[in-house]
Design brief:
Blueprint (H helix, E strand, L loop, with lengths): L33 E7 L21 H15 L6 E4 L3 H14 L3 E3 L16 H4 L4 H7 L12 H18 L4 E6 L1 H12 L16 E7 L2 E9 L11
Parallel strand pairs: 1-4, 2-3, 2-4
Antiparallel strand pairs: 1-5, 5-6
Helix pairs in contact: 1-2, 5-6
């Protein structure tokens, strides 16, 4: 191995200083990530009983309104929120309203945040659906399932991920709240984690829970999932 040659006049016993021109400069930091707070809508009178899907006219229950106010108080503690988006369904808009008020924003509607289109299953009782042979496919191999007359889980995931991509591009380096529904949020979290959608049913998203994902040039970073209490002050990647 040859001997490295130091510039003329530099003592052989001294280490080269950090500003020595032959040393690589420290890389400049990249752009600030965009923080997305994914909020599931609050509880409704049919939560856990029916599969409401996109049927109109379903509003928050009293418990759901209380949950929405609590979520708004948590999010208001974040230093600044650049925008609040919501699915167009009533239960999502009603959850987003107190959040938007608390952070001084207006609710923006984005159809990409819609609930999955359950087609012919819309409005059915969950207890009855669980007895169907297809329910096992829904739970264990959702990538292969399409709701009769409705959407596939893969299409749903592509839709919400595309919506979040648009929102991130519109608010670089900001903090944005997106109020959606359980299955789309689970699919978005699974995508951010690099988890196959066949495993997304293992993720739990409770009513009015907050899941946080930071989107940066290096890819998404999942900061918290299904958070239902406590401070959000630390939701920034280190």
């Amino acid at each position: 191995m040859g001997t490295a040659h130091l510039p003329e006049g530099m003592p052989q016993t001294e280490a080269a200083p950090l500003h020595w021109p032959y040393m690589a400069k420290k890389a400049s930091p990249g752009p600030k990530p965009t923080l997305i707070l994914l909020v599931r809508h609050g509880q409704t009178p049919t939560t856990g009983k029916l599969l409401p899907g996109r049927a109109p006219g379903l509003h928050l229950a009293d418990t759901g309104r209380t949950q929405a106010e609590a979520a708004a108080a948590r999010i208001a503690a974040v230093k600044s929120v650049d925008a609040v988006y919501a699915s167009p369904l009533e239960r999502a808009r009603e959850t987003a309203a107190p959040i938007a008020k608390a952070v001084g924003q207006k609710v923006r509607i984005d159809r990409g945040l819609l609930e999955c289109d359950f087609g012919e299953w819309t409005g059915a009782e969950l207890s009855a659906l669980m007895k169907l042979p297809a329910w096992t496919t829904v739970q264990r191999s959702p990538s292969t399932f399409r709701f009769p007359g409705g959407e596939s889980f893969t299409e749903m995931q592509t839709r919400i991920v595309s919506a979040l991509d648009r929102i991130v591009a519109a608010h670089p380096g900001g903090t944005v709240v997106c109020v959606s529904h359980a299955d789309p949020i689970k699919a978005a979290v699974a995508h951010a984690m690099g988890t196959h959608i066949d495993l997304f049913q293992r993720i739990v998203i409770s009513t009015c829970s907050i899941s946080a994902v930071a989107y940066s040039v290096g890819g998404p970073i999942v900061l918290t999932v299904n958070s239902t209490g406590g401070s959000l002050d630390e939701l920034r990647p280190s």
